[in-house]
């Protein structure tokens, strides 16, 4: 997945100890990590760097679901689909596109998925080699807490117990399953099961229009599949910038996707050699396959967390503070299991912060406001910092400027007509506090804005930095110039 709508970071009560920390744990300790995804393996690297003995328990494989079933596979599939989307501009650029519907552009999904899985396994193997080289003890199995300072791993050879000075829980999350829409791995699928398809679906019904649903719906639509996107909300991507979401929905419809807004799925069942989705209002939608993208649930079951004194939130996530501490001394948590932000980059940073804090190294608390996120639709949507909704609602005092991408000279050369850039700043100081980029490779273009937000650069500092001409990034400097405050207060 790309970006998943965030859950507010759990805040531990002020009068409740959040345990652990540099005063109680030092280098040379035994760190036991349950979960080998980005939160787990990045924490392991930091702990080894700081001189600790590290044991990492993981059942699925190094890299966890992020590498094996979620982020790496989905973005590899989307990268393939992107090549089909690029051909839209062929005629405008003077390239003969008469062959676009010929055999030259036939998609061999079996070959695509074979490459997807091969790259995921290769990435997992690379992580394993790194762990072994750094001296991390790897245990293949599932882990659970037996009290706050003991982890029991269930392996193929039985149980092994590890006493720990520091425990990190990084078990991630799994696709949410509805009782009226149970995946069968053949026609009714979660996003982890798509990569076993040998042929393109004849008609794919995607239930859920959040980040995961929008990304896969857009990718399969670009691959030439007839896609129906079922959205229970007024628009796709309801948690994102409204202008960005409206643009993506218009692109979906222009490319032939059927978007059913305000349509909640009541059930999904096998029907003949396909599937039937029954909506809450009684309408029925038939297709060959159905992808369920209705959110994720934290993997906290059977971990022994509550018995070890680790508090869970109402949503079932592990409650952590900004240095990844749980409510139990010596127990930390990182990644999707915490519900802070379902991003691999966030999981990795939470894991690093946990070890820096637990092992007495210098550490700064995690800053949600500095997190950049990207949705891998075509065009992509990248965001960082505060939102325009925060500003227009009065929650944040800020100024907004928006530039259409179509007026950028580089965009004209590339035949890019859809997309825009927004930049947000504080009126008093001129500091950059956020931004939105909707463009091809927005995931790359957001980085200068992220640097500005993280280092509290002003719009004038951004504007005075030279950009390449012509370049898409030139629009960032132009937006910053538009936010310049003159001496008389008129921008």
TrEMBL record:
Gene3D superfamilies: 3.30.390.30, FAD/NAD(P)-binding domain. Residues 1-29 are annotated as: Disordered. Its EC number is 1.6.5.2. Residues 30-351 form the FAD/NAD(P)-binding domain. InterPro entries: FAD/NAD-bd_sf, FAD/NAD-binding_dom, FAD/NAD-linked_Rdtase_dimer_sf, Pyr_nuc-diS_OxRdtase, Pyr_nucl-diS_OxRdtase_dimer. GO terms for molecular function: flavin adenine dinucleotide binding; NAD(P)H dehydrogenase (quinone) activity. Binds 1 FAD per subunit. Residues 372-480 form the Pyridine nucleotide-disulphide oxidoreductase dimerisation domain. It comes from the Bacteria. NAD(+) binds at residues 208-215, 295. Transmembrane segments: none annotated. It is an enzyme of class 1 (oxidoreductase). It catalyses: a quinone + NADH + H(+) = a quinol + NAD(+); a quinone + NADPH + H(+) = a quinol + NADP(+). FAD binds at residues 75, 143, 336. Its cofactor is FAD. The keyword Oxidoreductase applies. Pfam families: Pyr_redox_2, Pyr_redox_dim. Homotetramer. PANTHER family: MERCURIC REDUCTASE, NAD(P)H DEHYDROGENASE (QUINONE). Belongs to the class-I pyridine nucleotide-disulfide oxidoreductase family. This is NAD(P)H dehydrogenase (quinone).
